[in-house]
Each structure stands twice: as C-alpha cells, then as structure tokens.
Amino acid sequence: MSSKHLDRRQLLKAGGALAFAASARPSTVAAVDSSTRSPLIRDDNRYPKLTMITRYSLERLKFAASAGYECVELVRDDSFTPEKLSDSQIDRIKAEAKQAQIRILSLECGWINHIDASLADRRARNREFVRCLELAHQLGCSFVGTLSGGMPGQPIDAQVKAFTEVVNEQYVPVCERLDLRMGWENFPDPENFATSASRSRGSSGLGSELRIPFSEHFVQLVIQDLRSCL
C-alpha cells in the first residue's frame, strides 16, 4: 500500500465500515445539539462531508476548521483517556471545539483487544472500552471507532462467538443508553480478525447474530472515497 493511501486513511477515516455491516440493521444517527454544530454543516445535511482524524489540541481544532474540515475524530492517546480527563477538562474541550467552530464527531479507540484470549484481560479491555464510550458521549460524539482484536491461533468460529458475545452483552446496552454508534474498522491487522472481509465471509452466522448499532457515516465516507479514487 502506498503512503498516499495511508495518508488518505488518516485523513478520511475511510476504512470504518464492517464488511458485514450491510446485513446489520441501520440505526438513526444521534441528534446533534444545534448550539455545538459547525456553521459549515447545513441543517439538512445528515452527514458531514469531510472529517479529519487527529490528536487533541486547540491548535489542531482550529487548523481543521481553517482547512475546511467540518468535523474531527479525536484519537485516544496516553494523555487523552477517560482516566486522565476530568469533567471540567471535558467541558473545556467542548468549549474549545465550539470556539474553533468544528464538531467532535467521533473518538478513535484503536488497539483495544476486545476478545483477548485471557478472560481476565478481555474483561479489563471491555471495561476500558465502556469508559471510552462514556467519554465519547460526554464529548458529544456520534460514534466511536475501534478494531475488533483477536485470539491468534484460535478457530475463527470461536473468535466470532467471543466477539458477538462481547458486543451484544457488553457494548450494545451502553450504546443504546447513550445513543452512540460503533464504527468497527476493517483495517488489515493480524489481531483485527472480526472486521476483515475475508474472515467475516468465511465465518458462519456473524452477520445474523451480531446486532451492532453501526455508523452509517462510516459507510458514506467509504463510498465517497471509492468514488474519488475511481
């Protein structure tokens, strides 16, 4: 893959749709408080046209707005985590986004192994992601992006079962309560088994058993990116 495509992934976040998302039941996108909506986003436009993925800083928010981006997807990193952000800091970040006239659309929480082979570690990662969902809700996000994780060496169907149980039992109730969507990336990685197209096509029952409130915005970005490439 060329560096051009890698840069494109970083900027457009085009790899966010599940290969099997088309079989999942779409959910409506969470309503956005009009007081925090960027003036660049028309009220009759359901999705933003362009989103930049970036680490948080006021300067980056201002740059994204000045460069014509309508939204940002903020990346969880060592300093930008639920454990390290107080309520007052979160309020300040939201105020800075409003000041910069840009919307915080999503929180990127990659590299969490949601189905770690160790049950103790898996439960710890599940709790970690629930805290990320709660942070995204506090920030006013519509969805959270992440990777599935995997159990290297385990049969695919066993990983499908574990993934389905985690999503349905641990995450969906939280998403429904907070009116959030999840964007499961199909980024090719050895431990990102569940959202790899070739793996999911070869797994029985994944689309029918998994009830993910997925983000239609991810799908739209993929379509836009494919059209521009063509």
Count of extended strands: 5
CATH topology: TIM Barrel
The residue fraction in helices comes out at 40-55%
CATH architecture: Alpha-Beta Barrel
Sheet with the most strands, sense and barrel status? 5 strands, parallel
Spatially, the strands of the biggest sheet line up as 1-2-3-4-5
The count of domains is 1
- Secondary-structure content class: alpha/beta
How would you describe this structure to a colleague?
- Strand 1 (51-54), helix 2 (58-66) and strand 2 (71-75) form a beta-alpha-beta unit.
- The chain has one domain (54-229): TIM Barrel.
- A five-stranded parallel β-sheet has the order 1-2-3-4-5.
- It is built from eight helices and five strands; from the N terminus they run αβαβαβαβαβααα.
- With 230 residues, the chain is α/β, with parallel strands linked by helices.
- It is elongated and about 50 Å long.
Question: Which SSEs are present, and which pair or pack?
Answer:
Blueprint (H helix, E strand, L loop, with lengths): L2 H10 L38 E4 L3 H9 L4 E5 L11 H14 L2 E6 L10 H21 L3 E4 L9 H23 L2 E4 L12 H5 L4 H4 L6 H14 L1
Parallel strand pairs: 1-2, 2-3, 3-4, 4-5
Helix pairs in contact: 2-3, 4-5
List keywords for this structure.
disordered C terminus, 5-stranded parallel beta sheet, 8 helices, TIM Barrel, 230 residues, alpha/beta
